[in-house]
Amino acid sequence: MPGKRFYFGLTALLAFCAATMLMTGVHTASANSALASSGNLPTAYFHPAVLYFTIGITSSRTTTLTNSSAQSLLIQSFTLQGGKASNFTLSTTCGFSLAAGHSCTVTLTGFATTAGLLAKLVEYDNSAAGHHTVLLEAKEAK
Fold this sequence. Notes:
This protein is an alpha+beta fold. It has 2 helices and 9 strands; from the N terminus they run ααβββββββββ.
């Protein structure tokens, strides 16, 4: 019965992964939904949520992260993800905590060689969503 062993092995692996995610503080939808409904988690957003870069030109674009709640936003990290993420660098005025009603900025500098989605900036925090994303896209010069 090799199929059953695989099934039980897969079930055990999934249970282990779920337990590990909870122990390491990775946000899960069910845990966050319960806390969010009690109003204990901060809310935040990026504006703009898409940054456009012109193909063939090195440029910088800035987005603002705003904590729109009455609780402090605890920022865990910023990461650049995606196929062209290595074409970008980031700098930020954000610290590890963003007070209620305050904002900070993230500036991305990079070079685009092709049109379309290049990468994304992902900020991880203690909000109900657990993270916020900004898309980095490229378009032709006009």
